[in-house]
Amino acid sequence: FSRRWCVLNDGVLSYYETNLSSTPNGEIKMGEIVCVAVNPPDTHGYESTFEIYTQSERLYLFAADSPEEAREWVKSITKCFLPLKAEELLSRDFDRIGRLQYKGGRSLERTAVGWFSLYKTKLCMYLEEGDTVEVIHLKKLSELSPSTRERDVLVLVAQGRTTYILAERKLDFSGWENAIQKASSSTGDTLSEQQLTGSDVPVLVHKCIDHISQFGMASEGIYRKSGQNSKTTSLLEALKKDARRVVLKEEEHHVDNVSDTLKRFFRGLEEGVFGEHCQDWLNVAGKVALAPPISL
User: Fold this and answer.
1) What would the CATH number be for the domain defined by 82-184?
2) Which CATH class is domain 1-65?
3) Which of 87, 93, 164, 173 has the greatest CB tally within 10 Å of its CB?
4) Crossing angle of helices 255-267 and 229-242, rounded to 10°
5) What is the pTM of this model?
6) Which residues of the chain fall below pLDDT 70?
7) How many whole angstroms separate alpha carbon 149 and alpha carbon 190?
8) Domain extents for the chain?
9) Element (H or E) spanning 9, and its range?
C-alpha cells in the first residue's frame, strides 16, 4: 500500500501524493463504479480494506486506519453512484454492493439491471421492475448453480422463484459469485449456521431423516446400530460442506451409515439441539413453581 490523500468531491474520488499536492495521482468517477466490497479484517495485512470495481474491469484496493473510517468512506462512495430509489440498501452494513444484470420476476426473457447488496447471509435486491427491496435468504436456497465455462450465469432458486445473475463483467461477477456461495454454505457448528429448508430445518437433518423414513423404518436396530466409520465420516463431511448438492441413494448410502451421520452431527453441535432462542423456555422448565397450579 502507498499512503495517499483522498478527496471525494463532485462525483469524483481523487487521490493525491500528499494533502499539499495540487495535481491528483489518479481519480475514479462515481459513474464508472459497478461494485464496492468490504473485506474481512486483515485480508490484505490491514485491519480495514475495501475494493472498488469499475465498468472498465479495473480493481482499486484501499485501506483505512480503522473499521469505522473504512465504513464511512464506503457509504459515502456508495451514495454517489447508487440511484436514489435504491438507497434503502444502505440501511445495513453490507459486505458487497453494486450493479448486476439479472433475469427473474415476472419475465425470464428480458435482461434487466438491478442493484444488489450482500449483508451476511442475505442478498438484498432492488430490481428494475419493482419499487421495494426484495431479500433472498441465501442459507434457505433450494438450489444454487454456479457459473461454468459454457455459461456465465449464477442461478438462485428460493421459495419457488428463480433468479439468474448474469456476468456482464468477469472481475466483479467472480467476486459476487464467490461471496454468495460462501454466504449460502454451512459455516459453523450451530443449527442456525447450517443450510436451511424453508421451515428452518437444517438441510442435512431433513435429508437424513427423509432417507431413513423411506428405507430404514423396517430396519432392525435403526438409530441403535453404528454405521461404518469411514463412510459415516465421509458422508458427514460432504453434507456439512454443501448438503444441497448431496443426493442420498438407497444403493449407495446404507441407512445405518445415514443414521450414524445424523447422530454424529447432533453430538457435534456447539449449542445442542435447542438454539439460543429456546434458552428462555428451557430455563422456565427448570424453575420451581411458587404457586400451586390452578385446576378447573
Assistant:
1) 2.30.29.30
2) mainly beta
3) 173
4) 60
5) 0.85
6) 105-108, 150, 274-277, 282, 288-296
7) 35
8) 1-65, 82-184, 192-274
9) strand 5-9
What percentage of residues in the chain have a pLDDT greater than 70?
93
Write down the residue that cell numbers 464506503 correspond to: 74
Q: Which residue spans within 30-186 are E strands per DSSP? A: 33-38, 48-54, 59-64, 96-104, 107-119, 122-126, 133-137, 143-145, 153-158, 161-166
At 125, list the grid cell: 435486491
CATH class name, domain 192-274: mainly alpha
Are 74 and 52 contacting, i.e. CB atoms less than 8 angstroms apart?
no
Residue among 122, 233, 225 nearest 179 (CA) = 122
Q: What's the confidence (pLDDT) of residue 149? A: 73
Grid coordinates of 34: 459497478
Same fold yes or no, 1-65 and 82-184: yes
What is the pLDDT, as a whole number, of residue 224? 86
